[in-house]
Amino acid sequence: MSVQARMQNPTTLLPDAVKAINLLYKAAHSAGVPGSTLELVHLRASQINGCSACVDSGARNARKAGETEERLFALAAWRETPYFTDAERAALALAESATRLADRADPVPDEVWNEAARHFEEKELAALVLWLATTNFFNRLNATTRQPAPQHWG
């Protein structure tokens, strides 16, 4: 069964949205959080949400940024692998909590927040939260309109 888009990506129909998205991207990526960490949390949230377009682009962007295939292959099981730093683990825990809001009464428990705050300054935490919200925004746009991952040959 092939996935077909229901409509073009809404940002192509509402060009002013692209300007806002670009500003969010720029803000999140200018606060000092390592680019690899931002790529990992984007990819993990997209995996959770089942956004094929974002999983595809996230993995490709992470590889372009120097991420190893070993770490990318293990990302869904990051707790059980030795491949991630403590700071990355804190960011990934925050990503999962911020993405799975309805899974528990306290969606982002203090222990998750406090561990992230141990590794990231307040400005960096703001960037992580903003990037996670932006990622979840992308995931919801793509899932709602059934934007497929592009086909890559070769």
Automatic annotation (TrEMBL):
Pfam family, one: CMD
Domain Carboxymuconolactone decarboxylase-like: 15-96
UniProt KW keywords: Oxidoreductase, Peroxidase
InterPro entries: AhpD-like, AhpD_core, CMD-like
Source organism superkingdom: Bacteria
Record-level Gene Ontology MF annotations: peroxiredoxin activity
NCBIfam families according to UniProt: ahpD_dom
The protein's name: Alkylhydroperoxidase AhpD family core domain-containing protein
